[in-house]
Every structure is written in structure tokens, then in C-alpha cells.
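User: I'm curious whether this sequence folds into something compact or stays loose and floppy. Could you predict its structure so I can see for myself?
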Amino acid sequence: MSLPIVFHPAYEATLPEGHRFPMRKYGRLAEILAARGLVPNGFARPEPAGAELLAVAHDRAYVEAVLAHDVSREIERTIGLPVGESVVARSCASVGGTLLAARLALAHGIAGSTAGGSHHARRETGAGFCIFNDVAVAARQLHADGTIARALVIDCDVHQGDGTADCLGGTPDLFTLSIHAEKNYPTRKIASDRDVGLPDGLDDAGYLEVLEAHVGPLLDAIRPDIVFYNAGVDPHHDDRLGRLALTDEGILARDRFVVGEARRRGVPLVGVIGGGYSTDIDALAGRHALLFTAMAEVTGTPVR
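Assistant: Here's the prediction. I'll summarize afterward.
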């Protein structure tokens, strides 16, 4: 079986020249995956999320303001992106992409989206380059329509998943695990079901010890119907917004571990790419591609 991978051209929005968010990484990641032979039948293309879907995890007034490109300047500053046509289209496509990837994972055992992981978007507002919380929307929608009874979010982005905790709080069947640099953004965190704050400078070996202590035991305790895996690459030692010290090899080992633990238990897993911040777009997209390498390996998909 080939690995189902989701992409939409809208994933790469247009930003003002010189903007610090590395938007080009989304299109470059898709190019790398195609060049490595990971999409022999093409990418799966999602339907962008509309207001009704977004409102399963977000306040309707906030959703309508974003879709009308009419948020306050304060919210726009907190998000850090211009809330205009291109960026909003990207956010809606990203939510639709994570939901499609989740449905593909449930059908095939594993799938990924080449965007997603917008884990700072809270119920009533966006923040930290995140407008809508794709994982929270997908988890709530699948739970609401009875497709799943339980989900586990494994968030390995270097920043704490405050928005996902906010959007999924009060629903014990949608369990959130955040493994992050404790002293990094956000300063004011919202408690996940389990938070693991890491010390600055933690290396590959130390990080894998943390994974071994938490991932398998939680999978066994929760027995989820699906895992949402946020594979942010900002724990990398070269990331300009991270505080950890993982190498490319450590990122790949992390992804192999999380994917492998879910697959050994027969739990469907959907991967999203999360954060990663560098001016070297080729290196950054290459790090994000490691997630898809790890997922392809368990499906037997050849990687060039």
C-alpha cells in the first residue's frame, strides 16, 4: 500500500515580502515528497473547511470574523499573520486536510497532511501563527459523528499545545499529550491532559527517553481509536524558535518511535507537520519530510 498524503495548493499562502513565517516550506515539502516517489498516485486533495465544521471547536463569532477577514488588530497581532484572503484560505484548507488525513488513516491505518498542527489556535482566538486548530476540529468532528470514541493527541512541537488543550478541554475521551520546551512560548500555558516540559538543550538520547516513558504507556491506558501526531521539527538544534538540541537523525528517530508505537498496537495514526522555523527552506522542508519517511517505512512504500 502507498502512504496516503494530503496536499492543497492553498497550503502555501501569500505573505508580505520579508515576513518571518517560512510559508514556502509547504510547497517545497510537497515537491520533495513527489521527488522521493512518495505520491505515485498523486496527493489527496481536501475540501477546505467551512463555518459549520470550524465551529465544532471554535467560537462561532470568531469563525465568522475570520471568514469575513474582519478580526481586530489585536487578534491579528497575536496571530502574527495577516488575516486576509490568502492566509484564511490556507487555514481552511489546512483544517480540511487534517480531517481528510484522519479519515484516510482510519481507512488505511496511517496517513499524513503536508500542513496542520496549528496548536496555538484557541476556541475564541488565534495565536502564534495559528488561526484555526486543525487537529482539534478534526478530533471533535470525528467524535461528534460517532466515527471515533477516543483519540490521543501526541504533540511533539517544541511549543506547548495550549490551543489544543483549550479546544479539547472538558472532553476526557480526546486526550492531549504535549511534550515541549518548558521555557519556550507560550509564557501562559493552558494545561493539557498531560504536559511534559523539557529543559533547554535536551539532546536526541534524552528526548527518546521521554518518549519511551510516556507514549507507549498512554497508548495502552487510553486505547484510542486514532492518534493525531503533531511532528513539529522546531525541537531541532538549528531552529530559530526552539530551545532543544535534536539533530536530523534525532527527529527521524522520534518520528519512527511514535509511528511505530501506534502501528504495533494497531492504532490508526494521522501525522501533521507542526512548526519549524528557518530561513533555509530546503533544509527545513527536508526535516518535515522525515515524518513521511517514517510513515512510508511502515507501509512498505519505497523512498527514493
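Summary: The two ends are 16 Å apart (CA to CA). The chain has a mean pLDDT of 97.
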